[in-house]
Design goal:
- The chain is α/β, with parallel strands linked by helices.
- The chain contains eleven helices and twelve strands.
- It has a domain at about 1-145 and about 175-200 and about 260-275: Rossmann fold (3-Layer(aba) Sandwich).
- It has helices at about 10-20, 35-40, 55-60, 80-100, 120-130, 150-160, 175-190, 210-220, 230-240, 245-255, 275-285, and strands at about 1-5, 25-30, 45-50, 65-70, 100-105, 135-140, 145, 160-165, 175, 195-200, 225, 270.
- The strands form three sheets. An eight-stranded parallel β-sheet has the order 3-2-1-4-5-6-10-12, sandwiched between helices. The protein has a two-stranded parallel sheet with strand order 7-9. Strands 8-11 form a two-stranded parallel sheet.
- α2 (about 35-40) links the parallel β2 (about 25-30) and β3 (about 45-50).
- α4 (about 80-100) packs parallel to α5 (about 120-130).
């Protein structure tokens, strides 16, 4: 049996579908049983646990062959990442108590970076789970292609998408969430020793201009990407309600400056199968 956190999201859902298709038993670890009703209907066992609740997590992980950890992302973290640290402590202690046979944790590209940024939350969980007594895999995917969901309305209504990634022709490792979940299912069913890092991107690297062109094809009218100047970021993010915008700013800097990248050699990075056009067409269809 495999215990899955984050099953109601895109990655966790893709992972669960892959495990069920392989004939595996799945335990959905969720905060709200109603949101997981569709998974229960598909044969999943349901366990209720908040990611900050060590005891509930330990009970949810008990008896599992493998556990998938999808840490919640705090997009406006306080200095020092206290929100993430509460979850990390609870997850690490729960895994020690439950003693599953193996763990796969969703991390991120750039988790090895030493400069503090929004993705440092994943650096911290890697540091904590590295010391667990069971085998652990950290899955580090690139930028999610589905982040372009935020651009659908603008692309459709104005023919423009705003880009914080720049310059507009610079390609970045990106990947579809379906590929992330599919690979996570494969990794969970493998046998390995110690700690390993697996890095994943899509079939091709993607630039903001590529995303705009994909929107053009999906919508049937021209769409162009426009740079959001860095000098505007802080005031823009604050106006949108953020209290601590610098971690997000430094993450974007990391992509643009190249220090948020894959740690391993290029020939070790796994390539997914789902391309940009497939994702953009689905995002556009889902928005209609």
């Amino acid at each position: 049996m495999y215990a899955i956190t984050g099953i109601t999201g895109k990655v966790g859902g893709a992972l669960a579908r892959a495990l069920l298709a392989a004939g595996q038993q799945v335990r959905a670890v969720v905060r709200d049983a109603e949101r997981a009703a569709s998974w229960q209907a598909q044969g999943c066992e349901i366990a209720i646990a908040y990611m900050e609740d060590e005891s509930a997590l330990a009970a949810a992980f008990q008896g599992a062959t493998g556990v998938f950890i999808l840490p919640p992302s705090e997009f406006d973290p306080a200095p020092g990442f206290p929100e993430a640290k509460v979850v990390i402590d609870a997850v690490a202690n729960a895994l020690r108590r439950a003693k599953p046979q193996k763990v796969v944790c969703l991390s991120t590209i750039g988790a090895h970076a030493t400069e503090s940024n929004l993705l440092t939350q994943r650096t911290l969980i890697e540091q904590a789970l590295t010391h667990l007594p069971m085998p652990v895999t950290f899955l580090r995917p690139g930028w999610f292609l589905e982040n372009s969901a935020w651009d659908v309305a603008s692309a459709r209504d104005t023919g423009k998408i705003a880009s914080f990634l720049q310059p507009l022709d610079r390609v970045v490792p990106m990947v579809a969430t379906e590929d992330v979940g599919s690979l996570a299912a494969t990794l969970l069913q493998q046998t390995w020793k110690g700690v390993r890092v697996v890095e994943l991107e899509g079939p091709h690297r993607v630039s903001p201009n590529d995303i705009a062109t994909a929107f053009s094809r999906a919508l049937g009218h021209p769409v162009r990407a426009e740079v959001v100047e860095r000098a505007q970021w802080e005031s823009m993010f604050v106006s949108q309600g953020m209290k601590h915008p610098m971690p997000r700013i430094r993450m974007l800097d990391g992509f643009n400056e190249g220090w948020i990248c894959f740690e391993g050699s290029p020939d070790e990075v796994i390539r997914g199968q789902i391309d940009l056009d497939t994702v953009i067409r689905k995002l556009v269809a889902d928005a209609t």
